[in-house]
Design goal:
The protein is 29% helix and 28% strand. The chain has a seven-stranded mixed beta sheet. Strands 12-14-13 form a three-stranded antiparallel beta sheet, with helices on one face. It has a two-stranded antiparallel ribbon with strand order 1-2. α1 packs antiparallel against α2 and α5 packs parallel to α6. The chain has 269 residues and is of the alpha+beta class. It has two domains: 146 residues, Fructose-1,6-Bisphosphatase, Chain A, domain 1, CATH 3.30.540.10; 107 residues, 3-Layer(aba) Sandwich (D-Maltodextrin-Binding Protein, domain 2). The chain has seven helices and 14 strands. A hairpin with a 2-residue loop joins β8 and β9. The longest helix is centred in the N-terminal third of the chain and has 22 residues.
Length: 269
């Protein structure tokens, strides 16, 4: 996987923008003021504040590059199918965790080129932890007091297999998958943090059924892939971006790319 120096040059600025977005969200931490979007998911003042901060920052960084945010109005997304290169943003991933004040929510910034996330930043505002990756340049974890350190996925072992499940969205389909791995340890986490945990070798698998959107996964997918893992649909194909619909298929995050997890779990039709 060849390095792309222009991505490495962008990464420090994108990290700063994600951190600023997280800071804007935290100004509303503790507030329970929210409303429901059309799909029933919550929308808070923090979502809006982070969106405004991040979009302004990214537009200042590359004015000609479109931004697709979860909170973008439909008019701004007209013609998006023709975008070959754009920013894909979830300004507050894990709004339910934000409202419950668990700290398990994140800011997700990604750069998509030709349907693939090639740069990703996942920032956790409460802990101050920032995960970042650029295609061909590896994945890293840092805090306000610690310099970036490289992270890698781990080789899976049947006697020490950790499978992550969503706190709010695990269902019978996930239970059926876990039944095929009877020795696996089950752990839970909120938001895109699950992808970060696989990327840094603290978990092996994260199967996700149910509805997710492209902005939920783009930054985390870049992180996992740069760290040595995979994010695929249940047929083993990498998730693709700027599709006709922005909804993801059911997917599987795996740390050990040498294992055919879709085949082992009998996910392939």
């Amino acid at each position: 996987m060849s390095r792309r120096p222009y991505l490495e040059a962008l990464l420090p600025s994108v990290k700063k923008i994600a951190i600023a977005g997280g800071r804007a969200a935290l100004e509303h931490y503790g507030s329970r003021e929210s409303e429901s979007k059309e799909d029933g998911s919550p929308l808070t003042l923090a979502d809006r504040a982070a969106h405004r901060t991040i979009v302004a920052g990214l537009r200042g960084l590359e004015p000609a590059l479109p931004v697709l945010s979860e909170e973008s109005p439909p008019a701004e997304l007209a013609g998006r199918r023709g975008w070959a290169r754009f920013w894909l943003v979830d300004p507050l991933d894990g709004t339910k965790e934000f409202l419950k004040q668990t700290g398990e929510f994140a800011v997700n910034n990604a750069l998509v080129e030709e349907h693939e996330p090639v740069l990703g930043v996942l920032h956790v505002p409460v802990s101050g932890t920032t995960y970042s990756a650029a295609k061909g340049s590896g994945a890293f974890r840092e805090t306000a007091s610690e310099a970036p350190l490289p992270i890698r996925t781990r080789a899976s072992r049947d006697d020490d297999l950790v499978v992550l499940v969503s706190k709010d969205h695990a269902g019978p389909e996930v239970d059926a998958l876990l039944a095929k791995l009877p020795r696996a340890k089950r752990a839970s986490a909120g938001s895109a943090l699950k992808l970060a945990l696989v990327a840094e070798g603290r978990a092996d698998l994260y199967p996700r059924t149910g509805r997710t959107m492209e902005w939920d996964t783009a930054a985390g997918q870049c992180l996992v892939e740069a760290a040595g893992g995979r994010v695929t649909d249940f047929s083993g194909r990498p998730l693709s971006y700027n599709k006709e619909t922005l909804e993801n298929p059911w997917f599987l995050v795996s740390g050990d790319a040498t294992v055919d997890w879709p085949g082992r779990l009998a996910l392939v039709p």
